[in-house]
Amino acid sequence: MVSNGSSGSRAPVIGLTAYAQRARFGVWDTESVVLHRNYVDAVSRAGGVAVLLPPVPGTAEAVVRAVDGIVLSGGPDVEPARYGAARAAETGPPAEDRDGFELELARAALDRGLPILGVCRGLQILNTGLGGTLEQHIEDPRAPTHQPAPGEFGAHEVTVAPGSRLSGVLGERAGARCHHHQAIGRLAEGLRAVAHAGDGTIEGVELPGESFVLAVQWHPEAARGDDRLFEALVRECV
Fold first, then answer.
1. Which residues are known to be catalytic?
2. Residue extents of the structural domains in the chain
3. Low-confidence residues in the chain, pLDDT < 70
4. Distances (CA, A) of 234 to 114, 131, 146
5. Rounded distance between C-alpha atoms, residue 86 and residue 89, angstroms
6. Which residues of 112-150 are buried (b: 16+ CB within 10 A; e: fewer)?
7. What separation in angstroms does the CA of 190 have from each of 52, 74, 77, 153, 157?
8. Per residue in 52-76, is it b (16+ CB within 10 Å) or e — as a string?
9. What pLDDT, on a 0 to 100 scale, did the predictor assign at position 3?
10. What is the pLDDT of residue 67?
């Protein structure tokens, strides 16, 4: 926890997993650690303090001792070997640093009981880390609903299971802004599928129990004024 200043109250520190890749800014074109600002803004509006987590394998145990909650953010495809599959032609290039770090981080956070919110790839990391598999490419006619074009979000409605933690946050129907060409294949043992698209794609999962472990296949950070999932995460960290 960190102090927010004059009031003396303390705001939870939320770790956001991030990309490690080449980026251009100012006069520089260099290897960087970056993430869409929408994530940082959503955490800040929800009352948390956002910190970016560079994908450095071997640091997960130290990270979970330093933060109060975790956002497993969106990003590239998970390497299929991580869930025992051969690579499909449509699967993107591997991001070995992120895969290694984020799988370690998810396990360390679960062991410590830290609140976790998974976003898009974050849902897939959670499912993979707990022993599930992924559908490597969503074929037509489902595809345009989930990833209409590079850099564009699809918009559709998901149905949320009554009585789930997710329904307690969003209700039993919710709008989803999504950008993914992969999805859960075999659901990991212990995870509960709690939200579905109209085509049957799993759009939300949670881990039953006292700890807040919830993941969605869409991008709530891009939802323009709807920070309920981030607010729920921050509340769990207080």
1. 120, 219, 221
2. 7-237
3. 1-8, 144
4. 11, 27, 28
5. 10
6. eebbbbbbbbbbbbbbbbbebbbbbebeeebeebbbeee
7. 29, 22, 23, 30, 25
8. ebebeeebbeebbeebbbbbbbbbe
9. 40
10. 98
Q: Is the dihedral of CA 129, 31, 146, 171 positive or negative?
A: positive
Identify whether the C-beta of residue 70 lies closer than 8 Å to the C-beta of residue 14.
yes
pLDDT of res. 5: 41
Phi-psi sector, 58: left (phi>0), alpha (psi -120 to 50), beta: left
pLDDT digit string, tens, across residues 138-173: 887 777 678 777 888 888 899 999 999 999 999 999
Which position has the token pair 């960190």?
Answer: 2
d(CA 106, CA 117): 10
Q: pLDDT at position 6, please?
A: 39
Q: Are 71 and 39 in contact (CB under 8 A)?
A: yes
Q: How many CB atoms lie within 10 A of CB 99?
A: 23
Q: Which spans in the chain are helix H?
A: 37-45, 60-66, 96-112, 121-129, 143-146, 165-170, 228-237
Residue type, 138: I
Quickly list DSSP for 49-71. EEEEE---TT-HHHHHHH-SEEE
Residue-wise DSSP of 125-144: HHHHHTT--EES-PPTTTHH
**Homologous superfamily, domain 7-237:** Class I glutamine amidotransferase (GATase) domain (3.40.50.880)
Q: In the prediction, which pLDDT does 8 show?
A: 53
